[in-house]
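To whoever is on call:

I kicked off a structure prediction for a single chain this morning and the downstream step that reads the tokens threw a length-mismatch warning. I double-checked the sequence; it's 447 residues and nothing unusual in it as far as I can see. Pasting both halves so you can look.
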Amino acid sequence: MKKFFTTLSNIWKIEDLRVRITNTLLFLLIYRVGSFVVLPGVNAAIASTQKAEGLVGLLNMFAGGSFSRSSIFALGVMPYISASIVVQLLGIAVPYFTKLQKEGESGRNKLNQWTRYLTIGITFLQAIGYLKSQVAADARTIADPFTFIFLNTFVLTAGTLFVMWLGEKITDKGIGNGISLIIMVGIIAQLPGAFATEFISRNGGAGGLIAFIVEIVALIGVVMFTILIVQGTRKISVQYAKRIVGNKQYGGVRQYIPLKVNAAGVMPIIFAQALMFIPQTVSQFFPNVSSNGILIALANYNSWEHNLLFGILIILFTYFYTAITVNPNQMADDMKKNGGFIPGIKPGRTTAEFIDGVISRITLPGSVFLAIIAIIPALASLVGVSPIFARFFGGTSLIILVGVVLDTLQQIESHLLMRHYDGLMKTGRIKGRTAMPAAAGTSPTAI
């Protein structure tokens, strides 16, 4: 406990870190306050009684409750994330975007501009759909539907752009990972209410407090398991040739390439969830086929058919996303240019094949474990956990929470170590987060 307070004191002593943490808290406070500002022409009392279940519940969690409250930040940063995914996929399929990805800083700036433009378009379309489907007619105080939708479409679009600006400011002026921190704060904001709901239901119903304690222990176990998956790496030794230039020696040291067990991050779950929403969408637009037994089973989040297909899609998307984000050929070329080689492996094509084989072997258990984490909320619901509380037992929300918290701790720890203070951990650095890669292509996948 003494070391904990000493660490907090050291953090406060570093002026740059203190300012960055203060800025981050200030920007996050602005976001949370704005999430309670209701759209113009909406009755706040009626809007706050809307239920958020299924897909709506998931979106509401990412938006910190703004979605169900009909807030000006109702869409949150989800349109920006969708635009980022589209631009990233265009970088694989379209030569122009592929070229931009290889142009360094100028290329990244152009890609960011394209992402912002696409965010405006996606937000505009999602705002219209949100206003038509999620804001009840009795909650509207503006009688003319066209005026109501026209006005609030611009308000929602401006709200999303403002949240995106806050995220960028947190990245520049705060402790980094601005968009991820905004999502994390939105998820954490739902946690106290979920705890209270589950405690009340258990205290006055089945299982009692013993069942609630068991659930908390299980939740801690799932969090620890998720940390192992997020932190897990396979280290490949790399030896660099020794060179003598003048009176100085270069190279001659051994480093390693840390290949992550879950290199795809949370993206496979997001892609798989997008496909699993199709049966529910089909049943809404085509009532004649909504009575189909298979369609009903796939639309039910607790059915074994839904979770089996969901798990298979996650495994497939993990392989797909790992293949497009980790490039063994580029890693082998970078090592060869820098005079590096894997002991016992020939440089060049043989090295690329070796790295590709290692990635394929570690991706299998990583994808299976990711699928297990994704379906744990459904399993928790089947054993009696309330749907709101079950969302924290796994899935996208838990992986985002774990990943963002670890990255934030790593940012703080790097500031401490840079100024010769002890790290956050008693035994040194946070394992798995601060290792310097020996070659390109091993950076963590952004949310």
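Update from on-call: the warning came from a stale cache, not from the record. Cleared it. Sanity check on the structure: Residues 24 and 273 are 31 Å apart (CA to CA).
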